[in-house]
# Entry
Amino acid sequence: MNRRDLLLTGAAALLPPTAPAADLITLSPRPLDLEMPLDGFLSEITPVEHFFVRCHTYTPDVKLADWKLELDGLVDHPLSFTLDDLKKLPRFELVSVLECAGNGRSFYEPRLPGAQWRFGSVGNGRWTGVRLRDVLQRAGVKTGATEILLDGADVPIGKMPDFQRTITLGKALHPDTMLAWEMNGKPLTKEHGFPLRVVAPGWASDSWVKWLQRITVLDHEFEGFWMKTAYRHPNHSVAPGATVDPKDMIPVTDLNVKSVIATPDTWAKPGIVTIQGAAWSNASPVTKVDVSVDAGKTWQPARLLGAGTKYGFRRFSYAWKAAEGEHTILSRATNAAGQSQPLQQEWNPSGYLWNVAQPRQVTIGKSAPPVAAAAQPADIPAPDSYKACLTCHDDHMMRQQRITRAQWDREVTKMTGWGADVKPETRGALIDFLTARFKP
Ligand SMILES: Nc1nc2c(c(=O)[nH]1)N[C@H]1C(S)=C(S)[C@@H](COP(=O)(O)O)O[C@H]1N2
Ligand SMILES: [Mo]
# Structure
């Protein structure tokens, strides 16, 4: 961290938290997926209690006494570290956004299977630990190394492939890439990866492996499912709903520049309405947020709050003289590299990296309009075969999906491969049920 970054981090630490305590939204209790509600975007640093959680597996209960970080593969001397060993290395700290590649997936049309995140599978943390390169240098990385494999203590559910991820050697040796044992000044909680996790600032959080226990230096591309199949997106534009040739799919790495309006949500009283929220980016920090209160016809600069940090949330605020009626408001962030949020979202087959400047419909009126009841899934009784789905996860996982028969068919095939006990003779009826109940 250079002197300037250090000062900025220090300044961020002094900003008072402004967000009221908000409950996380449960997308799935088992495995645990929790989303941050909109008012989380009012805080520069996201308190741990408001920080989203995303787990592909059941949360492991790692005991420090049994835990070690193993470092092997293409190194001069394989090493293992206790947490105390790591704490003897030069301490490193930075502020960075952690955002799931799938944040915003629920907004894609045509719809896509997967965790149906809206705005809040993102948060901004202060991470404390060591630089990954300092750890790698102790073991001596041999020439020919190209990437490093990261493995956590979580175990796969059923026959699901183990969650193992690689990052390029370049990213691993970057001075901002780190292994963290603290989040916002406290030891990592169980949900966020106790005792140690990867922090890959500027990259989507699939690379931020939790419960880290092994690093293996490789000289070839790792073939595991979570690199070769999952967390890939097209290297060119595709038409909505199109299938993409696997050879055109590349790993998700950098985040996109993005902003989210926290308030107003759907309604405010006439007068001065403060449009506020947070913006973030990749390794190129946010330099500007523009706001439109006329559906994108005209744009005005918002005020950026605080000093900001390279990888963190930048809060913004705009005083809007709002008259009674229906309005469409938007925010649009730009980073130092000149990248801005698109006005039209490109589609991709996994629903990753959603970052459009997203229209928000707001009613300005003296009293709150009635809230329309949320659409409920059709009340169709479940066949006995549905139990195969509920063995590994709760009904939440299916309830959030709104996908077609062809998509349900593919999900059932994938899950059967991962160990779901779906009998060939009841498979058709199960897919009929899923489609009738949880359709677009
Ligand atoms: N070992 C392990 N690390 C993991 C995951 C996981 O399932 N297992 N989930 C990843 C994904 S997809 C995300 S979005 C982030 C979420 O981090 P958080 O739960 O601390 O917010 O952790 C990443 N690291
Ligand atoms: Mo994720």
